[in-house]
Please model this.
Amino acid sequence: MMGDYFRKMTGTTQSPVRVSREEIIWSWLGAFLGILAVAYIDSKFLAGTDLVLIIGSFGASAVLIYGAPRSPLAQPRNLLGGHVISALIGVSACKLLYPYAWLAAALAVATSIAVMHATRTLHPPGGATALIAVIGGPKIHHLGYLYALIPVGAGALIMLIVALLVNNIPSTRRYPEFWL
Amino acid sequence: MSEKPRGKKISPRPRLDLTEEDISEAMRLIPGYLDITLGDFKELYHLAYQKAVERLSRAVTAREIMTREVTWVSTDTPLAEVAEAMGRRGVSGVPVLDQEDRVVGVISEKDFLSRMGVIASQNFMSLLAACLKTKGCVALPIKQKRAEDIMSTPALTVGEEATVKEIAEIFTVKNINRVPVTDPQGRLKGIVSRGDIVKAALQRTTP
Model:
């Protein structure tokens, strides 16, 4: 029994193969343009306002939608659904448990994973989106539920548009695999 | 006729086992990062294969795959004619019918061999060995006999609704190569051989 338990920690298989050089270049280009679009709009139009458009979890989304666009985790349903649902859960956890930020943080991330699973919108960066709602500082807290719309919903939408435009240029790539 | 392992369990795993190298090679043919480990893919492949086998063998019935033009003999057909008919049609077994066209038995090469003094392993080489050691013809003991004298009886038959899976199980468990298909009154409608099952599998898997 115990033997089995520890044997499982040794793994059962090997790492998948490395992608081609073209694939690496297209992943780079997509991520560069996707984050560039969001960061540029944020700095040109929202600097000095109370709003933000870019949050840390978009870096993680870029890995999926430009680096592994075939992944079920990278599809539009997951990208938009996962981010928006997690944002709502993060803001709610923060508001409910405000003095206990440590508890709110754990509850936000765990609950968003559970709800993303239940709604078939699992998107790993959603966990970060929920966490940022709690630990993101006064500027994020001040947004309240608007956080789910801007930056989260709007930013994810811009990244999605870039993914549609860039991922479909090379003949060897396509995006998305499915919408809903 | 070949020797089949008796009572061997039919394995749900595909005979052609994928190696992780095969999967790696295949993954290289698909551009882009595939979000799955080799181990998960292999497990998925095995489970999907099992499902496909279940689905394909559940759906197809004896009626769809049986051979309808069956070479058959009567209970009173002399064995010389039985052997001639089997040789002419290139079959290794024939159903035996009574006067009302009901299947009462089956004669296979094995039934001939075992009546010709070949007891140990019922194949052609054993017969040849017996032939070379004897003066005269080893078929002499059965020369005057008729189909009903050597047929395997009662005949193992299946209905027209029997599934390929059930028939394959009968073949494996009973170690036989063909089974007559009968209507509820026991009258011959067709015959399913191992070859028919192979052909059916081919048609179902080739689009």
Chain B touches chain A at residues 20, 24, 27-28, 31-40, 42 (CB under 8 Å). The domain at 63-205 of chain B is CATH 3.10.580.10 (CBS-domain).
